[in-house]
Amino acid sequence: MTNLPWQKSTHSESGSSCVYIATPAAGTVLLRESDDPDTILTTGPRQLAALIRTLGIGQRQNHSYD
């Protein structure tokens, strides 16, 4: 799986702890973290979208607009 076109998340900071994503086939999404690139999480686009929505809601709720 090292030959996949991994794309770095635009929300990852420079340095370590970057999240990478690859889509080797329709309906499959692979995720890995730069500190442990041999560990790969396999999921689907709907599941990933639900996770991103959930994380985004948590960020908005904890954000102070004062």
Summarize the structure.
It contains one helix and four strands. It has 66 residues and is α+β, with helices and mostly antiparallel strands.
- What fraction, in percent, of the residue positions are helical? 25-40%
Mean pLDDT: 82
Shape: globular
The H/E string reads EEEEH
Largest sheet strand order: 1-2-3-4
First and last CA, distance: 46 Å
Oligomer designation: single chain
Biggest pleated-sheet summary: 4 strands, antiparallel
Low-confidence stretches: none
Tally the helices: what do you get?
Answer: 1
DSSP strand tally:
4
Based on CA atoms alone, the radius of gyration comes out at 14 Å
Give the helix/strand class. alpha+beta
How much β-strand is present in the residues?
25-35%
Blueprint of the fold:
Elements: E1 7-8, E2 19-22, E3 29-33, E4 36-43, H1 45-62
Antiparallel strand pairs: 1-2, 2-3, 3-4
Descriptive overview:
The protein has 66 residues and is of the alpha+beta class. 27% of the residues lie in helices and 29% in strands. It has one helix and four strands. It has one helix at 45-62, and strands at 7-8, 19-22, 29-33, 36-43. A hairpin with a 2-residue loop joins strand 3 and strand 4. The protein is globular, with a radius of gyration of 14 Å.
